[in-house]
């Protein structure tokens, strides 16, 4: 895998409310958001004080035919907690 040491991958599918857990959603539907974009994930990570790196040409493994992209962020605690923080920040930004 092309992850850098000490970084975790955040796929938009992890926080997409339209997906089921089996389709890749990593947080509760209540915490998830509709149609998250790579740019929103990057902005939320930056607002949380994380250095985010976008990889727009990557394919989510469960949907290999679609380039959804992914974001690499420094590992900071549990991955699920980090994903929830990012989703919460996006909800806040959307108003």
Automatic annotation (TrEMBL):
Supply the Pfam families for this chain.
Answer: SRP19
For whether the record's keyword set contains Ribonucleoprotein, the answer is: yes
Q: What is its main location?
A: cytoplasm
Q: From which residue to which does the signal peptide run?
A: none
Superkingdom classification of source:
Archaea
Query: Localized where?
Result: Cytoplasm
Instruction: Please give the InterPro entries that the UniProt record associates with this protein.
Output: Signal_recog_particle_SRP19, SRP19-like_sf, SRP19_arc-type
Keywords (alphabetical) are: Cytoplasm, Ribonucleoprotein, RNA-binding, Signal recognition particle
Q: Which PANTHER family match?
A: SIGNAL RECOGNITION PARTICLE 19 KD PROTEIN, SIGNAL RECOGNITION PARTICLE 19 KDA PROTEIN
Assembly with partners or alone: Part of the signal recognition particle protein translocation system, which is composed of SRP and FtsY. Archaeal SRP consists of a 7S RNA molecule of 300 nucleotides and two protein subunits: SRP54 and SRP19.
> Any idea what job this protein has?
Involved in targeting and insertion of nascent membrane proteins into the cytoplasmic membrane. Binds directly to 7S RNA and mediates binding of the 54 kDa subunit of the SRP.
By sequence similarity, the record places it as follows:
Belongs to the SRP19 family.
Q: What is this protein called?
A: Signal recognition particle 19 kDa protein
